[in-house]
Specification:
This protein is of the alpha+beta class and about 625 residues long. The radius of gyration is 24 Å and the shape is globular. It contains 17 helices and 26 strands. Helix 6 packs parallel to helix 9. Strands 1, 2, 8, 9, 10, 11, 12, 13, 14 and 15 form a ten-stranded mixed beta sheet that branches. Strands 16, 17, 18, 22, 23, 24 and 25 form a seven-stranded antiparallel beta sheet that branches.
Length: about 625
C-alpha cells in the first residue's frame, strides 16, 4: 500500500471536534503551561548544547536533575527538551494545518521559518554546537532530536509543498550522512547508552519518508544500515535488536516506548533486506503477550519480562502513540487490513481511555482496571507515582506523554485511507474527506458516519471525469455480517467495489455485530461490542492537586468510592445475558451494555460504558463458579 500524503485527508464531524478540543486544550496552550521546557530554551538555535552549556530546566523529575549538573561531555545527556518541543510541535503543526485555522496557520508558518533560520551553512539542523555534534562518546540526543524535528518539517512540507522546506531537509540529511558516514563509523557504539541514544533509531522514520518523497535509494540504504549497526552494538534498549528477536528465549524487558517505536526499523528491515524477513514474524508473534484487553502495550515505564495484566501492568501515552504508528507502517508494508482493527482498537480504547472525558488532561500511565488515579497504580500501593493522575503537562515526571497525546488524533486522521495501484482503501473509519487523484483525474471520497456510535458508513465518491478504480473498505473481524447499497465482492479482510465512477456516487455500508465476552491472558473475561471495550465505571471523590494560572487547566486526582466493584465477577452461566443500548445523544461514549455481575453471594444488574469515556473503571472480571 502507498501512504496518503499528509493533508490529503481532511477531518470532519467528530474527528475534527477531537482535534479542535486538543488545540483549545492543553496542546494549544502548552507554551503557557510549560514555558521553560517547550519554548524558552531554544535548543535548536540560540541555546544549542556545547561543552560550556549549563543545566536547563528539563521535563523530568526534580530529583533527577542533579545527575547532570556539570559541563563538558555530560551536556550530551541534556537532550530532553528537544523531545518535548518537537513531539509537541508534531501534533500542534499537524492539527493546526488540518483545522485550517488562519491564526494557527500563521503561528505554524512562523515556527517553521524560525527553525529553518537555525540551519547552519553546512546544512546542520540539530541541538549540538560544533564541539559536540557527531563526536559523542556517551548518551546523547543527536539522532533523536533530529528525528522528532524532521517529522514535523516533513508533515509541513507534504501539506504546503514548499520546496524550501524539502531543500532544507535534503541539506540536513546530507550533513547527517557526512557526519556519520555509512560504513565508516558506528553511531550506536558509545559508553552509557541510554534513552536519547536509543531513541535515535527512530530517525529511520524521516529517512524512509524522504525515500518515499524523492525516490532516492540513499535514504533507505542509510536507514537499513542504522538498524544493522544498532543490532550489532551493545545498547541500553535491545528488545528489537535482530539478535534479541532471533533468540527464542528472549523476553522483552526494556523501556516500553523504545520497544514499540523500534518496531518500525524492524518492519523496514524485513521489507527490504532478505536476511531480515524472519524478524517480522518473530516480532508479531510475541507482541500479543504484552497487550492488555484495550490494546494498551506494557510501558510503565519498563516491560520487565512481564506478560500483560489488566490490573498490574500500566501503559503510557508515548507507548500508545508509537505503537499506533508502528501498526500503520506494518499495514502499509504487508497490506494486511486486519492491522487496521488493531489500530482502531488501540485508539478508541487504550488511547482515548487515557484522556480525561471532560477536561483537557491525561494520565501519563494508566491500567485497564483503573481503581485509583491518586498518584498510585493500585489503591494498596505505599509509594507515590505521579504518572497515575490527570495532568495537562506532567512536568513532575516528563513532558513527553502530553505531546504524544497531541500526535495521536492527527496521525489517526492521516491513516484513514491508503492508496493502492488500482485505487483506494478505507483503512479506518470516521467523518473525513479524501482529496487525491487517480490516473490524473481528481477524486474526492467522503466518509459520513457517527462511527463508532453507529456502525454504518456512507461513502460519497466524486470524480471530475469518468474513471475506473477500486474502492476497498476494511471488513472488521468483529463484524458478523454487512449490507451494502452497491454490489461489492468480499475479499480477504475487505469489501471491494470495483467500478467506473462518474459524477457523485453515494452508498452505505452497514456492519452487524454482537456483544462478545472475551478472555484475556489471565483467563478473566471482558466485554466488547464492535470496536469498543466496555468497562464498569467506578464512582470517585475528586481532588484538585494543582490549579494552573492558565484557567481552566488543573491537575486532578480520583479516589474510589466503590471499592466493592473491584472484586466483581461474571458467573459462568451469565455470559450470554448482556444487552446493548445505543447512545441516547449520538455520543459514542454514551452507549451501554447491561448485565448481571456476581459478588460471590448476590447478583447485581449493572451497566457498562465504553472504556474510552471512563475515569476509574473495571474492565476484566474473573469467572464466577458455583451457585
Amino acid at each position: 500500500m502507498e501512504r496518503i500524503r499528509f493533508g490529503a485527508i481532511h477531518p470532519e464531524g467528530d474527528l475534527r471536534n477531537r482535534l479542535q478540543a486538543d488545540m483549545d486544550g492543553c496542546i494549544g496552550h502548552l507554551e503557557e503551561l510549560a514555558p521553560a521546557i517547550v519554548c524558552q530554551q531554544e535548543i535548536y538555535g540560540r541555546d544549542r548544547l556545547t561543552r560550556m552549556s549549563r543545566q536547563a530546566e528539563l521535563g523530568r523529575k526534580p530529583d533527577e536533575h542533579t545527575e547532570f549538573e556539570g559541563t563538558g561531555t555530560d551536556v550530551q545527556f541534556m537532550w530532553w527538551n528537544s523531545e518535548s518541543q518537537s513531539n509537541w510541535r508534531d501534533g500542534y503543526v499537524r492539527s493546526a494545518l488540518l483545522l485550517q485555522d488562519p491564526a494557527l496557520r500563521r503561528k505554524v508558518d512562523q515556527y517553521v521559518d524560525s527553525i529553518l533560520a537555525t540551519q547552519d551553512a553546512d546544512g546542520y539542523l540539530g541541538i549540538y554546537g560544533q564541539d559536540l555534534r557527531y563526536r559523542h562518546t556517551t548518551e546523547n540526543g543527536e539522532l533523536w532530536s533530529k528525528s522528532t524535528l524532521y517529522r514535523v518539517l516533513l508533515a509541513y512540507y507534504e501539506y504546503t509543498g514548499k520546496e524550501r522546506v524539502l531543500t532544507a531537509l535534503k541539506r540536513a540529511f546530507e550533513n547527517l550522512m557526512a557526519g556519520y558516514p555509512l560504513g565508516q563509523c558506528d553511531p550506536f557504539r558509545v559508553e552509557k547508552s541510554f534513552a536519547g541514544h536509543c531513541h535515535g533509531l527512530t530517525i529511520t522514520d524521516a529517512l524512509y519518508e524522504m525515500y518515499e518523497l524523492t525516490g532516492e535509494e540513499k535514504y533507505l540504504t542509510y536507514a537499513l544500515w542504522l538498524y544493522e549497526r544498532y543490532s550489532a552494538n551493545q545498547v541500553e534498549e535491545e528488545d528489537m535488536k535482530s539478535t534479541s528477536l532471533r533468540d527464542p528465549l528472549y523476553l522483552w524487558k526494556n523501556h516500553g516506548v523504545h520497544l514499540y517505536e523500534h518496531m518500525r526499523p524492524v518492519i523496514l528491515a524485513a521489507s527490504y533486506d532478505p536476511h531480515s524477513r524472519d524478524l517480522l514474524y518473530r516480532m508479531q508473534t510475541r507482541l500479543p503477550y504484552y497487550l492488555t484487553p484495550s490494546g494498551g502495550p506494557i510501558g510503565d515505564e519498563w516491560v520487565n519480562r512481564r506478560a500483560a495484566d489488566a490490573t498490574r501492568t500500566g501503559y503510557e501515552f508515548c507507548s500508545v502513540t508509537e505503537l499506533f504508528d508502528s501498526y500503520a507502517l506494518l499495514l502499509q508494508k504487508t497490506g494486511d487490513l486486519s492491522i487496521g482493527d488493531q489500530m482502531e482498537w488501540l485508539y478508541y480504547n487504550a488511547g482515548l481511555g487515557m484522556k480525561h472525558p471532560e477536561e483537557s488532561s491525561i494520565m501519563y500511565c494508566k491500567t485497564d482496571n483503573c481503581y485509583t488515579a491518586d498518584r498510585q497504580r493500585n489503591p494498596e500501593d505505599v509509594f507515590v507515582d505521579e504518572r497515575y493522575k490527570y495532568s495537562p503537562v506532567h512536568q513532575t515526571t516528563a513532558v513527553c506523554c502530553v505531546p504524544n497525546m497531541g500526535r495521536l488524533n492527527p496521525h489517526y486522521v492521516q491513516n484513514l485511507f491508503a492508496k493502492e495501484e488500482d485505487g483506494f482503501t478505507a483503512v479506518l473509519f470516521g467523518d473525513c474527506r479524501l482529496e487525491d487523484t487517480f490516473r490524473n483525474v481528481p477524486v474526492t471520497i467522503r466518509q459520513k458516519t457517527a462511527y463508532p456510535a453507529d456502525l454504518s458508513l456512507t461513502f460519497e465518491v466524486t470524480t471530475a471525469s469518468r474513471v475506473s478504480f477500486a474502492l476497498r473498505i476494511r471488513l472488521p473481524k468483529w463484524a458478523t455480517g454487512f449490507t451494502c447499497d452497491l454490489p461489492v465482492q468480499q475479499e480477504a479482510g475487505c469489501l471491494l467495489c470495483q467500478r467506473e465512477w462518474q459524477g457523485t456516487t453515494r452508498f452505505t455500508v452497514r456492519f452487524d455485530t454482537v456483544i462478545r465476552v472475551r478472555s484475556d491472558l489471565r483467563r478473566d473475561w471482558y466485554i466488547t461490542r464492535g470496536p469498543l471495550v466496555y468497562a464498569l465505571p467506578i464512582a470517585a471523590d475528586e481532588t484538585t492537586l494543582l490549579a494552573y494560572e492558565t484557567a481552566p487547566f488543573r491537575e486532578v486526582a480520583y479516589r474510589s468510592r466503590e471499592r466493592w466493584k473491584e472484586t466483581l465477577k461474571i458467573h459462568e452461566s451469565d455470559r450470554d445475558h448482556f444487552s446493548y443500548a445505543p447512545s441516547p445523544d449520538g455520543d459514542w461514549r454514551h452507549q451501554s451494555i447491561t448485565g448481571p455481575f456476581w459478588d460471590g453471594e448476590t447478583f447485581r444488574e449493572l451497566t457498562l460504558q465504553p472504556m474510552g469515556g471512563t475515569i476509574l473503571r473495571k474492565v476484566t472480571f474473573p469467572i464466577g463458579l458455583g451457585s
